[in-house]
Every structure is written in C-alpha cells, then in structure tokens.
Design goal:
The protein is of the alpha+beta class. Helix content is about 20%, strand content about 35%. The protein has one domain (about 1-120): Nuclear Transport Factor 2, Chain: A, CATH 3.10.450. The protein has two helices and seven strands; from the N terminus they run E-E-E-E-H-H-E-E-E. A hairpin with a 4-residue loop joins strand 6 (about 95-105) and strand 7.
Length: about 120
C-alpha cells in the first residue's frame, strides 16, 4: 500500500526538499487507520456514510460497549489490516475517546498507535 504521507503533527501533506513524501507499507496502513478514526460520520460531503459515528457514543452514559464495537470495526476493516490484536478505549467526561491498539498488517508487520484522541479537544 502506498499513499501520500501526512505530517503527523499538522495533518498536512508531508513535504521535504520541495517534494511530496510517500508513506508505504505498514506506515501507510497506520496512517489510513488514523485517518479513518479522524473522520466523523457525516463529515465528508461526498459520502455521508464515511466516518465513525462519534455522536452515538461520546457523552452518552453507558455507551462504552457500542463505542468499543464501532471503533474496533473501523480499525479492523481498514485496508491492509489483517488482525486487531490489542485494543484499549477510554471515554471521558470531556466527550473524548482515547484509543490505543496494536494490529498486524497483511504483510505480518506490527502496527501500534498509542493515545489516539477523538472528540472535543
């Protein structure tokens, strides 16, 4: 898998020496997962079905099971992901979801993301 690389801090296209950078392999898969988790359902004008339905569980008492199911599915169904091996979710009173996980790419390489935060910041 190859895609344009994104700057991990700004989310802008990564440019070095005037050249767009490429993310490939496990880095491209990790980036795809993070992009998938970053998009709220209904946010993208071209396809309102794309994204995680955060409004269904952020700030909703007792919605942890729903949140975990939706986020696990978003990660596990990302192209390039073979298995989701470890998953941790914390929902807080500030309407944020904090996700950490380990997955295995279809190439057999590990993918790890620690403290991905979605929601009000």
């Amino acid at each position: 898998m190859r895609t344009l690389a994104l700057d991990p801090v700004t989310g802008d296209l990564a440019v070095s020496g005037g050249q767009l950078q490429i993310a490939d392999g496990v880095e491209a898969v990790r980036q795809a997962i993070q992009m998938r988790l970053s998009i709220w359902a209904g946010e993208w004008f071209a396809d309102r079905s794309v994204g995680v339905p955060y409004l269904r569980f952020l700030g909703v008492p007792g919605a942890t099971t729903l949140a975990e199911s939706l986020l696990r599915r978003a990660i596990a169904t990302t192209p390039g992901v073979a298995t989701l091996d470890r998953f941790s979710l914390t929902l807080d009173a500030r309407r944020r979801a904090r996700v950490s996980f380990e997955a295995t790419a279809i190439t057999g390489e590990p993918i790890a993301v620690t403290d991905f935060i979605a929601g009000d910041t």
